[in-house]
Design goal:
Blueprint lengths: L64 E2 L5 E2 L4 E5 L8 E8 L5 E3 L3 E4 L5 E11 L8 E7 L5 E2 L3 E2 L3 E2 L5 E4 L2 E3 L5 E11 L6 E10 L3 E4 L8 E10 L4 E5 L4 E3 L8 E7 L5 E7 L8 E10 L5 E6 L3 E5 L6 E9 L23 E3 L7 E5 L10 E8 L2 E2 L5 E5 L3 E11 L4 E10 L8 E6 L2 E5 L7 H6 L23 H15 L1 H11 L10 E3 L18 E9 L8 E7 L3 H7 L7
Parallel strand pairs: 2-8, 11-19
Antiparallel strand pairs: 1-3, 3-6, 4-5, 4-7, 7-8, 9-13, 10-12, 12-16, 14-15, 14-17, 17-18, 17-19, 20-21, 21-24, 22-23, 22-25, 26-27, 27-30, 28-29, 28-31, 31-32, 32-33, 33-34, 35-36, 36-37
Helix pairs in contact: 2-3, 3-4
Length: about 575
């Protein structure tokens, strides 16, 4: 403590304590006194040892603060510490203030802050000595940012690179943290479309702008993917990859191949399919189906992403189709080869109603006739060589004997088909009624004929009458042939000399297999010399063919043989297309 002394007294007794002591002296000068001095001594007038005199009060050093943070930190809680400053006076505590708020006091050397908000915080701490003097403030800046950045997916200018050149991507910042975005690390990889080969075009290339331009390692037929890593000031980041690659495709795809048409039954529509166009790096995005009706112009018929399409042929017209492919880069291939649907012939079917007895009414109908790939445009009936009607049905009363019913139909493309019905009517009760339906490949006989002895047929072939008579004067071979056999031989002779039966029989022969058994036999004429025809070669060749006799009413089939002397053309056709029954 200090004691006040009277003004004129030059010796003052004071008590000093350990540490810093301050003394204020007020001097009054009289006359020409120009100076003074102050000396501190003990009560025995001895110099005080270790006493340091400061002409001015020494300042208290500010505390040096440490938060353990360097720049932005992704945390919410912070501890700030400091060391006691070296001061001539005794430090008794510290005053502190955060972000310019209220001043608080603490005796320790640690401050803890929890749940601080994001942003920049400023902390000031003053040291306070025993006399209440304070030091200059110690400052600490606390920067907190725990929210990562967020950017959009990198989007290229185009997903297909159609010519050599740079590839450009751009992205946007959806959320910028308080610490800001320092920049972006970009990695670009390229690979083959099947992913078999992958390599880096660039790796961890840094850019400060939200876009990137790739100018190197660009080749045809590769897929380029970009990955962008955005980095904030606090060290947090987000990584985004482009969802779709940029495909470099400089050339058009190959044209489609292997076009096929599959007919949809009983319609004019077809399934047109083809082989996928492969080998294009950008893939095939669509196919264009073009058609030309008749001799008209090509027109776009369909666009599909599949390798097939349903197409239709207009009635009465021919149509041609072709296909081209378009890849993802927009290149069109050349057109494929052209294909046209062939015409399926119509199918003539004769149905009838009636007992089949002499003098009764019979109705013949063509209702079940059809064209599998178009429409029937006309029908034509002929009864015993006489035209009847062009309607679907006609009704007639027949006399006893053999009658021929012929149906000719024409489809919308001009192709015709025939059905021939041979009807034999005997008597009034209809018991002896017999009919033969010649339908392209099979002779249907009703009722079925009796069994035939194969051995007898092969060893003793029938003798066909070679005269122009009615055929009842056979003089060789079997003396008493079976009634049905004699009638059947007459019918075959009738078919051979009739233009109607010849066309139907040629169709029959044309569908037997060429590898079926052929047996030759020699016809010997035993007619009297007076009734013999003009001289002919001694050997006449016939061919035995196995046929199936089937009851039209669905009765069980009976096998037999027919001996035919074919013309050259029908014989050749018999060896070309044969369907085994």
């Amino acid at each position: 403590m200090l004691r006040w002394a009277s003004p004129d007294q030059n010796i003052t007794a004071v008590s000093l304590r350990e540490g810093m002591n301050s003394l204020t002296v007020k001097l009054a000068f009289y006359g020409n006194v120009t100076g003074f001095y102050i000396r501190f001594t003990t009560t025995q007038n001895e110099t005080v040892p270790g006493l340091i005199y400061y002409p001015d009060l020494p300042p208290i050093p500010p505390p040096i603060l440490s938060s353990g943070l360097s720049g932005w930190a992704p945390v919410k809680s912070v501890n700030v510490t400091w060391e006691r400053p070296e001061s001539p006076t005794r430090i008794v505590g510290y005053r502190w203030c955060l972000d310019g708020g209220d001043i608080s006091f603490t005796e320790g050397q640690l401050l803890s802050f929890d749940n601080l908000s994001e942003g920049i915080h400023t902390l000031k701490v003053w040291a306070v000595d025993e006399y209440g003097f304070t030091s200059a403030p110690g400052n600490a800046t606390i920067m907190l940012d725990w929210t990562p950045p967020l950017i959009t997916e990198p989007v290229p200018e185009a997903y297909y690179l159609t010519s050599p050149g740079p590839i450009r991507w751009r992205w946007e910042v959806l959320r910028e943290p308080v610490s800001g975005i320092l920049g972006y690390y970009v990695t670009v990889t390229y690979s083959t479309p099947d992913g078999f080969y992958t390599d880096y075009a660039v790796r961890f290339r840094f850019t400060e702008e939200p876009f990137f331009v790739l100018q190197e390692n660009i080749f045809d037929g590769l897929c380029y993917n970009i990955t962008v890593k955005a980095l904030s000031g606090s060290g947090l980041h987000c990584t985004v990859t482009s969802p779709f690659p940029v495909v470099s495709d400089f050339y058009a795809p190959p044209p489609p191949e292997g076009l096929r048409l599959t007919h949809i039954q009983n319609t004019t529509r077809y399934i047109l399919d083809w082989n996928d166009s492969g080998g294009d790096p950008s893939g095939i995005s669509l196919y264009e189906v073009w058609r030309k009706v008749g001799e008209g112009k090509w027109e776009l018929a369909d666009v599909t992403s599949d390798s097939e399409a349903t197409v239709e042929r207009p009635l009465y017209m021919n149509v041609t189709f072709r296909v081209r492919a378009r890849d993802g880069a927009g290149h069109f291939s050349l057109f494929s080869e052209e294909i046209s649907p062939g015409n399926l012939p119509p199918v003539a079917v004769i149905e009838f109603e009636g007992p089949g007895a002499e003098g009764t009414t019979m109705t013949f109908t063509s209702t079940d006739s059809y064209d599998p790939d178009g429409a029937i445009i006309s029908r034509y009936w002929i009864l015993d060589g006489v035209p009847q009607t062009g309607l679907e049905t006609f009704t007639v009363t027949l006399t006893s004997g053999l009658h021929t019913v012929r149906l000719t139909i024409k489809d919308d493309r001009g192709e015709t088909s025939e059905a021939l019905l041979l009807v034999n009517i005997s008597g009034e009760d209809g018991e002896s009624f017999t009919k033969w339906l010649i339908d392209n490949s099979i002779i249907y006989v009703y009722p079925p004929p009796p069994p035939v002895n194969d051995t007898e047929e092969e060893t003793t072939p029938p003798v066909l009458n070679n005269t122009t008579s009615s055929g009842e004067g056979d003089s060789g071979g079997r003396s008493t042939p079976l009634p049905w056999e004699r009638f059947f031989i007459r019918s075959i002779i009738f078919l051979l000399i009739s233009s109607i039966a010849l066309s139907a029989l040629s169709a029959l022969l044309g569908r037997f297999k060429r590898d079926e058994e052929e047996e030759e036999f020699t016809e010997t004429s035993e007619m009297p010399s007076s009734s013999r025809p003009p001289p002919s070669p001694p050997r006449r060749t016939f061919y035995r063919r196995e046929v199936v006799f089937t009851g039209v009413d669905g009765s069980e089939a009976t096998e037999g043989y027919v001996y035919i002397r074919p013309s050259v053309s029908s014989f050749e056709r018999a060896h070309e297309e044969v369907a085994e029954r």
